[in-house]
Specification:
16 helices, mainly alpha
Length: 391
């Protein structure tokens, strides 16, 4: 039988190979352990059996295996997926209506928010029902209810109904409490086996990321065309907010997942960085309820903290490309903040906001496709860059 230390070495190897889905990882640990034990029964030492076993595994084998299995898991059409695609379609319909100045644009957008809320609710409830043995149903519902309340609040504001600001304030409060509580839970207790929130997120990650990519890249093309023809007729800011908030939550939950799987990443500095990112992500959505200078500071602070966190949480954290990307995003949003505070002239905006920088940021999304936290960080950064683009 393999010792616990030897099994931990095997788990760390599978993590480095990109096999992060816990049920599949457990199955592969059992399978490879049997292979190693069989070789050791033939007289080989553990290290000799290990070297033989590892050399027989093709490059990217486990990563490709996980991708195929996750795609097959999500292949069946669910209500959550149907509602997500309907929401995506309505978002684009709303944008077209706004560009053509047709009636019904706001109503289409609000309906899309309702479908997003429905997708989140059906996906989370089915996940809770199918995984009754896992802890954390209340934490899952707290985050989902916070998101739904935020969507309802913005829906009220789009339709010029009373109570929108109050609902958004309630949603922000619930989300902040939930995100901080979950961060502390992962830091103190989570083993990665019983945390329902991160388990469900890992299952749905491919679909979540696909949704944001399908929403973001048409907006990038649309914004570039608007810049080139020098028009301010860009109606995509509301959709960019969806990407910023959604990808930001994706980033925070991915950090939790890394903390669960790697004890070396579970320390006080990582915990505080996660809490700071949570506050910097959620509080600006209070809008006018929070003074503008504070919102500017929070947005500017998110970039260096989240950039460092994304860099530190990846196994390939010494990759100079990721250092460059995190530094570029930090420099851009620091420059933006200095312009907004009139510390440097607004005429300097072209230094930070231009097509070459946008291309580099979009390239960062593509380059980091195998690095979860870095890619989520880049999605937030590109959406935020387009939202704050100073012509």
């Amino acid at each position: 039988m393999l010792t616990d230390a030897q099994k931990n070495k095997l788990r760390e190897f599978l993590d480095r190979q990109g096999l992060s889905f816990k049920p599949l990882q457990d199955e592969m640990v059992d399978h490879i352990s049997c292979d190693l034990e069989d070789r050791m029964s033939q007289g080989f030492t553990f290290q000799e059996a290990w070297d033989q076993c590892i050399t027989e595994i093709p490059n990217n084998h486990f990563q490709l295996m996980q991708k195929e299995i996750m795609e097959s898991i999500n292949k069946g059409v669910t209500w959550s997926q149907v509602l997500s695609f309907m929401a995506l379609g309505l978002i684009f319909i709303s944008a077209i209506f706004k560009m053509l100045h047709l009636n019904g644009a706001d109503e289409s957008l609000v309906l899309s928010l309702a479908f997003i809320a429905g997708s989140l609710l059906t996906g989370s409830l089915s996940g809770i029902f199918l995984n009754k043995g896992k802890k954390g149903a209340a934490r899952v519902l707290a985050v989902i209810i916070g998101i739904i309340l935020l969507l309802v609040g913005f829906g009220f504001k789009f339709l010029h109904m009373r109570g929108g600001d109050q609902i958004i304030l309630l949603a922000d409060g619930l989300l902040i409490i939930s995100l901080i509580a979950n961060s502390q839970y992962v830091y103190k207790y989570a083993s990665g086996e019983g945390n329902l929130l991160t388990y469900l997120h890992e299952k749905y990650t491919p679909g979540i990321e696909r949704f944001f990519l399908l929403l973001l890249f048409p907006l990038v093309i649309y914004k570039v065309i608007s810049i080139l023809i020098m028009t301010n007729d860009f109606v995509g800011n509301l959709f960019l907010l969806v990407v910023i908030f959604g990808a930001g939550l994706q980033f925070i939950i991915l950090v939790w997942r890394v903390m669960e799987k790697n004890l070396a990443k579970r320390n006080v500095l990582i915990l505080w960085a996660t809490v700071v990112c949570s506050l910097c992500l959620v509080l600006p959505f209070l809008g006018p309820l929070l003074p503008l200078p504070f919102r500017i500071i929070l947005v500017a602070l998110f970039s260096p903290v989240a950039g460092w966190l994304a860099y530190a949480m990846e196994d390939e954290f010494r990759n100079p490309v990721y250092i460059f990307l995190a530094g570029l995003v930090t420099a851009v949003f620091l420059g933006w903040a200095l312009i907004r505070f009139s510390i440097i002239s607004a005429s300097s905006s072209w230094i930070f906001f231009n097509i070459p920088v946008l291309i580099l940021l979009v390239a960062g999304v593509l380059i980091s496709r195998k690095q979860g936290t870095m890619r989520a960080f880049m999605l937030v950064s590109v959406a935020g860059y387009l939202f704050e683009y100073i012509s």
